[in-house]
Amino acid sequence: MIITGLFFTEYARVSEDMLDILGGVWDTCTVPRDTRMLECRLVALLQTGPDDIGKDFPATLEVLDANGEHIVNQRGLQIPGAGFTGENRFWFLPMQMVFRDEGRHNFILSAGGATASVGLRIAFG
User: Fold this and answer.
1) 43: nearest Cα among 88, 102, 3, 96
2) Dist. CA 35–CA 41, nearest whole Å
3) Using one digit for the tens of pLDDT, what is the confidence trace for 22-56?
4) Which of 15, 98, 110, 111 could disulfide-link 59, Cβ–Cβ 3.0 to 4.6 Å?
5) What is the pTM of this model?
6) What does the DSSP 8-state code read for residue 52?
7) Which of 82, 72, 83, 67 lies closest to 110, judged by CA?
8) What is the distance between the alpha carbons of residues 79 and 68, in angstroms, rounded to a whole number?
9) Cα pseudo-dihedral 60, 12, 1, 59, rounded to 10
10) What is the bridge-based pairing of β-strands 28-31 and 114-124?
11) pLDDT tens digits, 54-99
């Protein structure tokens, strides 16, 4: 499997076996200064080989803060294979996260031997 895309969106859902998103592909996000909380979806676009159709893939999400320190290491995630009959698939993770600091954060998804990352600049507003 390879991860062909990784991005943030305000909203994601599955509709008729397709991905619907609203407000996607962020570079910067301003979170409320008082809560410092971000609610979003992290979306991964995936491509599997013919032998991987229907397989589940364990996944890990790591988040590095602006100083390069690990602030999240979420293991035990699962990218399900059920419902996908072709090689192209998608997956999204609903997220709620509180940030200590402003600056660029790096989100790293690993699954099925593949790794992809996306940066997001956090500002307090």
Assistant:
1) 3
2) 18
3) 999 999 999 999 999 999 999 999 999 888 888 99
4) 111
5) 0.94
6) G
7) 72
8) 26
9) 10
10) parallel
11) 899 999 999 999 999 999 999 999 999 887 888 899 999 999 999 9
